[in-house]
Amino acid sequence: MPTARNRLLVALDVDAPEKAHALVDQLTGHVGGFKIGKELFVTAGPSVVRHVVERGAHVFLDMKFHDIPNTVAGAVRAAVRHGVWMLNVHASGGAAMVRAAVDAARQTAEETGGEFPLVIGVTILTSLDDEDLKNVGIATPAHSAALRLAKLSQLNGLHGVVASATDARNIKDHCGENFVVVSPGIRPAGSDAGDQKRLMTPAKAIANGADYLVVGRPITQAPDPAAAADAIVAEIRQALGD
Q1: pLDDT of 133
Q2: pTM > 0.70
Q3: What is the dihedral of CA 20, 21, 27, 31, to 10 degrees?
Q4: Cα distances (Å, whole numbers) of residue 224 to 6, 50, 217
Q5: Fewest beta carbons less than 10 Å away: which of 31, 45, 107, 228?
């Protein structure tokens, strides 16, 4: 199992590569890895992924691929060639798309001699609650929809899912302890919720079964990002009983 420090992934949701590089310099050794999402990737391109990988840090490429199977497979192949440690696809893209992503990741890793990354499925965004789902035609509660997508992900070869920590224990109970749950929407006590709705503190998230916690603004916008990260790692360590 990952250590307390390795369970913390910092979201580099910034608008310039220089800001990302500075955060990586500040936080390497304090956290387990870095999430690179759409804003930074669209701004800086693959070079920012390579920069973090070359620093020896884990990269979770959070592009949430969702398209026809052939297109997603091509995107996954490109991601694996950049050396990412973990990447995600929308589980709602369906079984064929999910299988295409897993197959593309495995084959590319074999062809390049690289590591087979964790490929995980996005379930229900933490910014959505039951009412939001109703508005887009999903009648089931968020926790039920997340579990259904987690089961589809597991059945079709994904290593785990992105899910709210509020759903983590339910997913673990049905999919097993080895099925990875990566949880965004993590806020230390007293932090601003921002645009998130289904939130948990780091300690509660770990206690509820989350394996990895994705934290952005409470660290990246803190006066001392390294100190903020260390405080969250200490909270994770306490929750684990280490």
Answers
A1: 85
A2: yes
A3: 70
A4: 19, 25, 12
A5: 45
State how many domains the chain has: 1
- What is the length of the chain? 242
| Cβ neighbours for 195, distance < 8 A, ≥ 6 positions apart | 127
pLDDT given at position 48: 96
The yes-or-no answer on residue 204 being catalytic is: no
pLDDT at position 197? 52
Judged on CB neighbours under 10 Å (0-12, 13-18, 19+), 222 is: middle
Domain that holds residue 161: 5-240
> Where residue 9 sits, what CATH number does that domain have?
3.20.20.70
* Contact call for residues 48 and 20 (beta carbons, < 8 A): yes
Q: In which residue are the tokens 């921002």 written?
A: 194
Note the pLDDT tens digit of each residue in 175-196. Answer: 999 999 999 989 886 555 555 5
Which candidate in 19, 38, 64, 134 is catalytic?
64
Chain segment 65-92, per-residue pLDDT in tens: 999 999 999 999 999 999 999 999 999 9
Contacts of 161 (CB under 8 A, 6+ apart): 91, 120, 121, 122, 123, 146, 149, 150, 153, 171, 179, 180, 181, 182
End-to-end CA distance of the chain: 12
